[in-house]
Design a protein that fits this description.
Blueprint (H helix, E strand, L loop, with lengths): L21 H15 L1 H8 L5 H27 L12 H25 L5 H8 L1 H13 L6 H22 L7 H23 L5 H23 L8 H29 L1 H5 L1 H16 L6 H17 L8
């Protein structure tokens, strides 16, 4: 590389460390905070709105927020560059339909029905299949090699998740086989969404997010119309919770999710599955007066170790 004075300047190779720069890790933690804080909003929403209609309202309001974001950004920038308003071809729309319908709306519905026969601890364990499935699918379709180090990291994270929810097993009733199967299928569909987002044509994250959420919302609407009656007496608190769910965990989080997968890959993002329940548990300790247990500390150590091991970059040979 030539400097302004004509002297050659040596470019140093990146230092070994964790894959993804500080911005990627900050985005990952932001997703953990947002997704780990959604449970309270869902609990408020389902008080007077059935699960199918809550999912539908969440997705459609999220699409509305993303559409408004695109419109406002376009009005403010008004850039004459060709890449300022990227075109979305049929191939991209096909990928977004797969991600939105099969890997977003469908898991939402599957987990809503799984909750009818299994408890939150069992559901969290089933959801822990997402990083496993993501690692396997990434090896098959994206060329992201399935190394022993990566498998070890995923297993450490899963063990941490088991330690976290282990005390809840004694408090729950026996889990139904159908509920477990629904939750596991939902976890694999989330993994399909992770890989699909990586393989989809590279479109601006805000555009990709809008198409994914909008198509998911339309499919959820069709399901809700067939499956459940329209809620007639929804409370103001439930409606507000639904709108907030659409704004933060759906619209904004989808934008960050797409951006982060394009930047750091699906396996890196899949570890939010292990970190989000840990964050939700921490909120309970800090703000709801729940007791800090040994399992929480052990889970924290195991999950963080798993994330570090699975995403550690090897030292380059000199």
């Amino acid at each position: 590389m030539e400097t302004a004075g004509g002297k050659a300047k040596t470019t140093r190779p990146p230092a070994p460390g964790l894959t993804g720069d500080a911005l990627s890790w900050a985005a990952l933690l932001l997703l953990v905070v947002i997704w780990g804080s959604t449970f309270a909003g869902i609990r408020i929403g389902v008080e007077t709105i059935s699960p199918a209609w809550l999912v539908t309202g969440r997705l459609l309001s999220g699409a509305a927020f993303l559409g408004a974001w695109i419109a406002i950004a376009g009005a403010v920038t008004r850039s004459p560059r060709a890449d300022a308003t990227p075109k979305v071809g049929l191939a991209a729309i096909g990928w977004f339909a797969l991600i939105g319908i099969a890997a977003t709306a469908a898991p939402f519905v599957l987990y809503a029905h799984a909750a009818e026969s299994i408890g939150s601890a069992v559901m969290a364990i089933c959801n822990g299949a997402t990083p496993f499935a993501t690692v396997i699918l990434a090896h098959m379709f994206t060329g992201d090699r399935l190394s022993a180090r990566r498998v070890a990291g995923v297993m450490l994270g899963f063990l941490g998740l088991v330690v976290l929810v282990l005390p809840e097993f004694g408090k729950e009733q026996s889990a139904g086989l159908i509920g477990i199967l629904l939750a596991v299928v939902g976890a694999w569909l989330y993994a399909v969404g992770n890989i699909g987002t990586r393989l989809a044509p590279r479109v601006a994250p805000i555009i990709s997010s809008f198409w994914i959420v909008a198509l998911a919302g339309v499919s959820a609407l069709g399901y809700a119309i067939v499956a459940e009656p329209f809620p007639q007496a929804a409370s103001a608190n439930s409606i507000i919770a639904m709108i907030v769910l659409g704004l933060l965990p759906t619209a904004f989080a989808m934008f960050v999710y797409v951006w982060l997968i394009q930047r750091s890959g699906p396996v890196f993002v899949s570890f939010t599955t292990y970190l989000s329940p840990l964050w939700a548990t921490g909120l309970g300790v800090l703000f709801l007066g729940e007791q800090l247990q040994w399992s929480m500390v052990g889970a924290l150590a195991l999950i963080l170790a798993g994330v570090a091991v699975a995403n550690r970059r090897l030292r380059p040979a000199r």
